[in-house]
Every structure is written in C-alpha cells, then in structure tokens.
Backbone:
C-alpha cells in the first residue's frame, strides 16, 4: 500500500503544544516509572526467551534482578500516587476477592463484573484517606497538639541496613550487639544509646515520626499468653487490642512507650 503513511497521518494528533503543556513534573515521574516497568518486564521476558528458544540455562539470578528493578520503578509510581506497597497489595487482594470469592474458577474469570471491581478499589482508597484524616484530627484534638507538634525525639527502634550485603540489623536492648554477615557494619545499644559502625543505611525510628510509620516498625517482645513460649517479637500493628490494654494495665512503661500504645488505641478507634 503506497499511500499508507499519508493516510495514517490523517488520524495523528496535531496539537502537540497542548500535550507538552500537560507534561508536568508529576506526569514526568509517572512516565519514568511506566517506561522503566515496561523495559524491565521486557528484560525479564528476554531472559525467558533465551532459555526456551535458544536452549540457554535459565538465569534465575537475572530474573530476580529484573524483579528487583521492577520494584524500584513501582516505588516511584507509588510515591507519586501517594500509596504504599502494602496498600497496593491490599487493594489487589480485595479486588481478587470481589472477582473470585475465596478461590479461582474459570467461570468467574470469564464473567467478570468490572464495575464492582472498580467500586471495591475506589472504596478502599477513600476508606484509607478517611481513616488517615480522621485519625489525625482526633489525635490532635484529644492530645491538644498543634498541627505540627514538637515532640521530644526519643529512639524507638535502633536499626540499620548493611550497604554491602543488605542485612537488616536490629539492636533491641542495651547490650544487644549485632554485626552483619559480611562484617561490614555493626550496631549496639538498643534504645538506650546508638553505637553504629561501617557502611549502612539508617533505619532508626523515633517518637517524632508519624504514628503510621511507628506502628509498622515498632515491636514488642512476648512469651505468649501462658508465658511459656519462646521470646518472639510482634509488630505494633499486629498486636491485639486486648494485648495492648493488658500491657498498659499491668506493666510500668516508659513514658514514650505508653504514649505509643495510647496512640495506637486511638488510631484503631478511628
């Protein structure tokens, strides 16, 4: 077809000036993420192609590398859109439950109700925003704090990540010395003091961090209900409300720890 290009260009968008005006920094970051996700997905497929079509050994290391690169670009997109990995994962599971119920079926896969799936996604996103807004308002009201409270900065989680081997080290008490598997860094001091050495990324959490951050990281040691289990650590977000109330009622707590537990109870009421 000799005049294909001429005919095709008749349907091309002409107003590229308007398009360029829409190209904000936010769109640029999302474009960066989108192009990166596409590139890394293609590199993942290329590794599979070389194995299946050319008979090369399956390079699992490379496949895992491409997955990690995909996460990197996902992180950019999540940051722009104002969501966490955990929220995205929860949205996905809720959407799948709306589609399949408790398990997969061919019939439900074919006969999807896209309107219901969309409603589930929108409700979950709005629910998170409402909870976050309500928590912030009630927290500030009940604690009589300004919108930008000046909290005393007290260490809650003493943690680092080795820049060489990637090990995450947590020092939970005063003499809890830890070093990474490659010997490049170490940590000590629990929440009483910090002694850090080597090449690392700081993962410490303090009382002046937002409670949504604290509840994801702060841990409480437990020997189980009967006190006979091995010591294990439970993240604040995973502790039951009764457990938290029992701790407040029966134990003498440092002021900052008591405040965290009270903040968590208030968060759950919202």
Residues:
């Amino acid at each position: 077809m000799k005049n294909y290009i001429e005919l095709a260009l008749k349907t091309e968008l002409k107003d590229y000036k308007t398009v360029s005006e829409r190209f904000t920094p936010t769109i640029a970051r999302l474009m960066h993420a989108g192009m990166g996700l596409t590139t890394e997905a293609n590199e993942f497929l290329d590794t599979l192609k070389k194995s299946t079509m050319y008979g090369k050994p399956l390079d699992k290391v490379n496949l895992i590398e491409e997955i990690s690169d995909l996460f990197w670009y996902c992180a950019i997109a999540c940051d722009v859109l104002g969501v966490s990995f955990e929220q995205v994962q929860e949205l996905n599971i809720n959407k799948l439950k709306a589609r399949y119920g408790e398990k997969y079926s061919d019939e439900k896969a074919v006969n999807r109700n896209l309107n219901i799936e969309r409603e589930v996604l929108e409700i979950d996103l709005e629910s998170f925003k409402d909870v976050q807004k309500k928590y912030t308002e009630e927290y500030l009201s009940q604690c009589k704090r300004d919108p930008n409270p000046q909290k005393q900065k007290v260490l809650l989680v003493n943690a680092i990540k080795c820049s060489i081997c990637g090990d995450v080290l947590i020092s939970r008490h005063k003499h809890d010395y830890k070093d990474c598997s490659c010997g490049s860094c170490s940590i000590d001091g629990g929440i009483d003091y910090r002694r850090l050495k080597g090449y690392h990324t700081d993962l410490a959490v303090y009382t002046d961090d937002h409670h949504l951050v604290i509840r994801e990281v702060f841990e409480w040691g437990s020997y189980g209900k009967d006190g006979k289990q091995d010591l294990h650590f439970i993240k604040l977000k995973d502790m039951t409300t009764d457990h938290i109330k029992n701790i407040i009622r029966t134990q003498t707590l440092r002021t900052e720890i008591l405040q965290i537990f009270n903040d968590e109870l208030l968060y759950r009421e919202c």
Notes: Residues 25-54 form the longest helix (30 residues). The radius of gyration is 25 Å. DSSP finds ten helices and nine strands in the chain. The chain has four domains: 16-82, 96-143, 151-208, 210-270.
